[in-house]
């Protein structure tokens, strides 16, 4: 991202040079220097914002690893976001949170509420492939909404939480084809901590995602 930003800045500066070269009688050197200085300042500001975002990502990643160290949760740092997977598992055909799930979500809510109130959380719901794709899509949403509602009850803002369902989408199953007693890992909710501005549309699955 940084390289693209720098290239864009100097590309604009190059265009400015060409434009000013064709209008030498109308643009002074001081005006040109001022334009270049503004471009450099904008590039520096963007770099500072990227550095601050990366520091926040690193910080929340460590906090999540500490909060979930005693649970079977995977913390993955992605570009501009943190993914907390296997946060909640559900009984077959159920969207009811277990007491252990609630303990994990308590820790998650506390970290976000106290240290990162400006982030956006996507709650992703999943199902095993036992039912139809349409039913599993709805079941995944019920699970995502159950987790979202619980986090709101723990003091998180409804505006920073959004729920999506991937149902039984094969490319998102932890153990493809597993259901019933063997498919608990597929009946889950994952949390994605996104550092995008509020109002950014979620990466929602397409209508044909489940299968």
Structure commentary:
The radius of gyration is 23 Å and the shape is elongated. The longest helix is centred in the first third of the chain and has 39 residues, at 29-67. Helices cover 46% and strands 17% of the residues. A hairpin with a 2-residue loop joins strand 1 and strand 2. Helix 1 packs antiparallel against helix 2 (29-67) and helix 2 (29-67) packs antiparallel against helix 3 (99-115). A 5-stranded mixed sheet has the order 1-2-5-3-4. The protein has 2 domains: 2-52; 68-194, OmpA-like domain (60s Ribosomal Protein L30, Chain: A). It has 4 helices and 5 strands; from the N terminus they run H-H-E-E-H-E-H-E-E. Residues 1-6 and 196-211 have low confidence and may be disordered. It is an alpha+beta fold and 211 residues long.
The backbone outline, from C-alpha atoms, is elongated
Strand order, sheet with most strands: 1-2-5-3-4
Radius of gyration: 23 Å
In round numbers, the mean pLDDT is: 75
**Which regions are unreliable across 5 or more consecutive residues at pLDDT < 50?**
1-6, 196-211
Number of helix segments? 4
Main sheet properties:
5 strands, mixed
In whole angstroms, how far apart are the ends? 34 Å
Tell me the name of the CATH class of the largest domain.
Alpha Beta
Under the CATH scheme, the architecture of the largest domain is 2-Layer Sandwich
Structural class: alpha+beta
The tally of domains stands at 2
State the CATH topology of the largest domain: 60s Ribosomal Protein L30, Chain: A
Order of helices and strands: HHEEHEHEE
Instruction: Give the full name of the CATH homologous superfamily of the largest domain.
Output: OmpA-like domain
Q: Give the beta-strand count.
A: 5
Measured by DSSP, the beta-strand proportion falls in 15-25%
Give the helix proportion (percent range).
Answer: 40-55%
């Amino acid at each position: 991202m940084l390289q693209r930003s720098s290239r864009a800045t100097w590309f604009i500066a190059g265009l400015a040079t060409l434009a000013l070269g064709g209008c030498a009688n109308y643009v002074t050197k001081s005006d040109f220097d001022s334009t270049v200085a503004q471009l450099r300042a904008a590039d520096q500001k963007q770099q500072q914002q990227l550095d601050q975002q990366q520091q926040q990502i690193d910080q929340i990643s460590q906090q999540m690893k500490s909060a979930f160290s005693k649970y079977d949760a995977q913390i993955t740092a992605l570009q501009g976001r943190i993914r907390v997977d296997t946060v909640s598992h559900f009984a077959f055909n159920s969207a009811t949170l277990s007491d252990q799930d609630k303990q994990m979500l308590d820790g998650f809510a506390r970290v976000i509420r106290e240290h990162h109130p400006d982030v956006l959380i996507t709650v992703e719901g999943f199902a095993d492939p036992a039912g139809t794709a349409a039913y599993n899509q709805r079941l995944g949403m019920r699970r995502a909404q159950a987790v979202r509602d619980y986090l709101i009850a723990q003091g998180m803002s409804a505006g920073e939480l959004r729920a999506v369902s991937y149902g039984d989408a094969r490319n998102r199953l932890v153990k493809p084809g597993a259901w019933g007693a063997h498919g608990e890992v597929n009946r889950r909710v994952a949390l994605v901590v996104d550092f995008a501005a509020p109002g950014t549309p979620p990466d929602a699955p397409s209508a044909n995602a489940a299968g």
